[in-house]
Amino acid sequence: MWNVISDRISEATGRRFSAQHPTPIGGGCINAAYSLEQGERRYFVKTNTADKVSMFAAESAGLQEIARSKTIRVPFPACHGTTGDTAFLVLEHIEFGKGGTGGVAELGRQLARMHRTTSDTYGWRMDNTIGATRQLNTPSNQWAGFWREQRLGFQLQLAAHNGYGGNLQRKGERLLADIDRFFVNHEPAASLSHGDLWAGNYGIMPDGTPVIFDPAVYYGDRETDMAMTELFGGYPAAFYDAYEDEYPLNRGYAVRKTLYNLYHVLNHLNLFGGGYLSQAEHMMDTLLY
Ligand code: ADP
């Protein structure tokens, strides 16, 4: 398998590459990850089962979409494909450093500039995945409807399918029926969004350059990215200060962030079960009253 991947890297880069002994890297949630190197050249390779190749194709396209915005550094995708029963995605390998305050402040500024890259419609040109769950991106002109149907509604249906009925569904239905009230005077720009920007999906290079990776790209309300930075642990204060200086958040974010993070908590319920059920219901309670 590593011969095939090396050959594909050679074809994609136009330079012979023949490493055969990968070094496993820990830390990913969904995929196995490896470093593959030959001399100075080093790649970061993710693998999964062959049926996940479209997930890798969408991740590669998402990284390219962000790269095209020329606002923030992402690992550049070299190639993706399948060999036997394995799907693979090969990215430029990036060395992360300790990262000081300067790096996270720059991250805030650059993310704000990325969010100023906009589209005419919400969604994207392809569906992708959030974690291992399908994420719908059918283009839409109406943000509230997009969030209701393609984000919360989709995850709620999946939860019902996974056996989470009862209170979760009853509260969810009430929330969806009344969702417009969160968007009074709020028609956000369709901003290029990372889509999965929890604190595990950024790094700072030793020279201070911020990098974001593992995206679930689409065009939507930039507040969704900011909300997710706060969901699992939060980012350093310097990040938020720099973002606010560059592109201040609108009033109403404080309430909407719970509505936006509910999507990720429902996704975690669908992926991992357990305690995310009470967390999701608690979030719905605060939104309903
Ligand atoms: P998964 O898709 O399984 O969640 P990630 O893309 O989040 O995997 O990568 C797992 C870990 O590998 C990250 O937390 C990060 O530390 C590291 N990593 C991600 N991309 C690169 C890269 N291009 N170069 C080096 N390390 C990386």
Provide an overview of this structure.
With 289 residues, the protein is α+β, with helices and mostly antiparallel strands. The protein has 2 domains: 2-92, Phosphorylase Kinase, domain 1 (2-Layer Sandwich), CATH 3.30.200; 101-288, Aminoglycoside 3'-phosphotransferase, Chain: A, domain 2 (Alpha-Beta Complex). Helices cover 44% and strands 19% of the residues. The strands form 4 sheets. The protein has a 5-stranded antiparallel β-sheet with strand order 1-2-3-5-4, with helices on both faces. Strands 6-9-12 form a 3-stranded antiparallel β-sheet, with helices on one face. A hairpin with a 2-residue loop joins β4 (77-83) and β5. α3 (101-115) packs parallel to α7 (237-246), α4 packs antiparallel against α5 (166-177) and α4 (143-161) runs parallel beside α8. The longest helix has 20 residues, at 253-272. Adenosine-5'-diphosphate binds next to β3 and β5. Residues 25, 27-31, 33, 44, 46, 75, 91-94, 200-201, 213-214 line the site of adenosine-5'-diphosphate.
In terms of topology, how is this protein built?
Layout lengths: L1 H12 L9 E3 L6 E7 L2 E9 L3 H16 L8 E7 L2 E7 L8 H15 L2 E2 L8 E3 L2 E3 L7 H19 L4 H12 L12 E4 L8 E3 L5 E3 L5 E3 L2 H9 L5 H10 L6 H20 L3 H13 L1
